[in-house]
Amino acid sequence: MSVIKTAVLTPEQKSLLKQAIFLQICDLQKSFYQDKKISERDYNDRFQKIDELTETLGIRDTYAYNDL
Which domain holds residue 19? Predict the structure, then answer.
């Protein structure tokens, strides 16, 4: 059994992480909608992983534009 270690993120770290996730979401959407490089299944799987990550890290508000 593995133990998950967590650390408290500083506001600057949270901001940087939010920006990185935002860029990842933009790239994912471009790959799916514009470039059609990935399947709908891959798109949904990757987005689910991002969603789980934001929930785990407590940064679910990543999707709010005015937080960037």
Answer: 11-67
**Cβ neighbours of residue 42 under 8 Å, at least 6 residues apart?**
32
User: If pLDDT is split at 50, 70 and 90, which confidence band does 32 have?
Assistant: very high
Q: DSSP labels for 8-31?
A: PPPHHHHHHHHHHHHHHHHHHHII
Residue 4 lies in a domain: no
Under the phi-then-psi rule, with left for phi > 0, alpha for psi from -120 to 50, and beta for the rest, what region is 19?
alpha
Residue 28 lies in a domain: yes
Mean pLDDT of 42-57: 92
Structure tokens at 6: 């967590």
